[in-house]
């Protein structure tokens, strides 16, 4: 074949021209000397410099340094793929009822869930990480006839405990004491969700169950939304020493700055080891979930969710997650003629649903891979750390008091991985000893006293690291901030903090309100940069 000398000459000329005309690139900042320490949000062992749309999916340097990259990749695959109802094969065992079929459904690209639209609650939509919370409004307790995270799907022949197609979400507007307007005329909006769920959406009600408290018959229960948070950085929070968190409780209890004090479940004159879950009553301070129901990461949200969201059993959990009572769904499903026709007798169905010795559908190796992935997810480095606007916002963030609850930094301890269940995988986990990290949370619960507030009103301060990358990672139209995605941007989130004069964050919010637009924009730029 003859060469095209004309094209070859053009290529050579182009290269030479490029070499002659291009300036040498300006040297970037030296990562060891020019970047501030808060650039490394997860410390040197826990931070990724990849801030693309895949930022929340990156392994930490500690994971790769320990030679756990392959296990991390295997765990990533399990988290990404759907579980199936097959009885054999990888990721089998979905059901008999379940909340979602994969981690990605609730954590798109491992971020927090996307904004909830107006209208029908679309449980099957990938990215809808906002879970339903059905409670007794008088006691704030979960209703006994559904699980704390109600299942929305059934694997045939079993039927969904709750029909999501009958559930609607309506967005209401709220007006604060400032009329939703800053002094300089800039306006903002405040919205919150209301959820409607008829009792006909409840499977056991349709099968004849009647609630002893009468809430189900009268539709006197209350339904709220709680959005998932990003799963990245959980291993770093797990590495914070227990005593340091307890000391934070003591500090906040002593200084008297909180209008609502501290949750007596955790502090009643001294630190209380709360036993929300009987398998870990003595493991120090809880640190995961809005309600602080979980302690060490090996028994925390990820380890729990891979089981109860999918109902895939494993060697340490050979039973199904059905309802708070434990037997109501089993009793009424076992009497369902359509279930009997395809499964067996009433006794066989009931025994299967309530058994504590079911075969393990997820192997120990697979669970180890999931936990290496979960503990090994990095946090993205801070962005624009030399930008004057961001630096100004960082200073103002502290000046007006936002850093009281959103404590900027912690230092990890020896990071001795612990598991209340004594599952034999802790030796394989990534570790983060002696790292200065910047999650922007005090790891304590507070009350914001918002319209249609979170269950109980107590909510752990959500870490702010990486939150500004949510839209890039998920393609969401909004930033989906706050526990139920009510805030579409940083301004709305801040102003919800001061909606009520009884809020623990009322004073800092009023300080923010008094700022001029340039200063407000600086704080927003900083929050989006961390």
Q: Would you kindly provide a brief summary of this structure?
A:
This protein is α+β, with helices and mostly antiparallel strands. The protein is built from 19 helices and 13 strands. The protein has a domain at 69-129 and 163-196 and 228-318 and 359-529.
Protein architecture, described:
The chain has 530 residues and is α+β, with helices and mostly antiparallel strands. The strands form six sheets. It has a three-stranded antiparallel sheet. The chain has a two-stranded parallel sheet with strand order 1-9. 30% of the residues lie in helices and 9% in strands. It is globular. The longest helix has 17 residues, at 5-21. It is built from 19 helices and 13 strands. Helix 15 packs across helix 19. Mean pLDDT is 92; it is low at 1-30.
Topology, pairings included?
Elements: H1 5-21, H2 43-46, E1 47-48, H3 61-65, H4 69-80, E2 97-98, H5 103-106, E3 119-120, E4 130-135, E5 153-154, E6 168-174, E7 190-196, H6 203-206, H7 215-218, E8 222-227, H8 234-238, H9 242-255, H10 301-308, H11 328-334, H12 337-343, H13 346-354, H14 364-375, E9 379-380, H15 388-399, E10 410-411, E11 436-437, E12 445-447, E13 458-460, H16 470-474, H17 490-497, H18 506-514, H19 517-529
Parallel strand pairs: 1-9
Antiparallel strand pairs: 2-5, 3-6, 4-8, 6-7, 10-11, 12-13
Helix pairs in contact: 4-14, 11-13, 15-19
């Amino acid at each position: 074949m003859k060469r095209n000398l004309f094209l070859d000459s053009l290529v050579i000329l182009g290269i030479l021209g490029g070499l002659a005309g291009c300036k040498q690139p300006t040297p970037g900042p030296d990562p060891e000397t020019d970047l501030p320490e808060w650039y490394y949000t997860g410390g040197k062992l826990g931070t990724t410099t990849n801030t693309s749309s895949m930022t929340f999916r990156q392994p930490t340097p500690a994971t790769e340094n320990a030679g756990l990259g392959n296990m991390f990749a295997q765990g990533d695959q399990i988290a990404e793929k759907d579980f199936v109802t097959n009885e054999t094969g990888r990721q089998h065992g979905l059901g008999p009822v379940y909340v979602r079929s994969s981690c990605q459904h609730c954590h798109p690209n491992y971020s927090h869930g996307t904004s909830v639209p107006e209208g029908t609650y679309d449980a099957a939509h990938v990215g809808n990480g906002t879970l339903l919370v059905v409670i007794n409004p008088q006691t704030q307790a979960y209703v006994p006839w559904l699980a704390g995270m109600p299942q929305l799907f059934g694997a045939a022949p079993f039927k969904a405990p709750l029909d999501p197609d009958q559930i609607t979400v309506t967005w209401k507007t709220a007006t604060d004491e400032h009329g939703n307007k800053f002094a300089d005329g800039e306006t903002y909006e405040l919205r919150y969700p209301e959820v409607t769920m008829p009792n006909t959406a409840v499977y056991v009600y349709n099968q004849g169950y009647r609630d002893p408290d009468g809430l189900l018959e009268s539709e006197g229960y209350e339904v709220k939304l709680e959005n998932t948070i990003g799963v990245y950085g959980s291993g770093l929070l797990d590495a914070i020493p227990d005593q340091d968190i307890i000391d934070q409780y003591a500090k906040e209890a002593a200084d008297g700055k909180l209008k609502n004090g501290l949750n007596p479940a955790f502090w009643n004159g001294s630190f209380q080891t709360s036993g929300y879950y009987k398998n870990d009553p003595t493991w120090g301070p809880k640190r995961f979930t809005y309600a602080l129901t979980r302690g060490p990461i090996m028994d925390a949200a990820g380890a729990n969710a891979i089981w109860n969201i999918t109902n895939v059993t494993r060697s340490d959990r050979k039973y199904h997650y059905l309802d708070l009572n434990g037997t109501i769904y089993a009793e009424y499903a076992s009497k369902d003629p359509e279930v009997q026709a395809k499964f067996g007798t009433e006794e066989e169905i009931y025994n299967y649903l309530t058994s504590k010795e079911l075969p393990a559908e997820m192997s120990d190796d697979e669970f180890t891979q999931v936990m290496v992935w979960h503990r090994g997810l990095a946090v993205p480095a801070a962005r624009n750390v030399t930008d004057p606007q961001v630096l100004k916002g960082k200073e103002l963030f502290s000046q007006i008091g936002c850093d009281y609850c959103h404590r900027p930094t912690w230092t990890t301890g020896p990071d001795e991985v612990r598991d209340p269940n004594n599952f034999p995988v802790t030796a394989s986990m990534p570790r983060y000893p002696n790292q200065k990290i910047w999650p922007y949370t005090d790891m304590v619960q507070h009350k914001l006293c918002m319209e249609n507030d979170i269950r109980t009103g107590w909510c752990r301060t959500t870490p702010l690291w990486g939150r500004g990358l949510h839209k890039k990672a998920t393609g969401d139209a909004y930033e989906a901030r706050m526990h139920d995605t009510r805030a579409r941007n940083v301004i709305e989130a801040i102003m919800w903090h001061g909606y009520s004069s009884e809020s623990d964050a009322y004073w800092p919010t009023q300080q923010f309100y008094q700022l001029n637009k340039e200063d407000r924009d600086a704080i927003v730029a900083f929050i989006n940069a961390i």
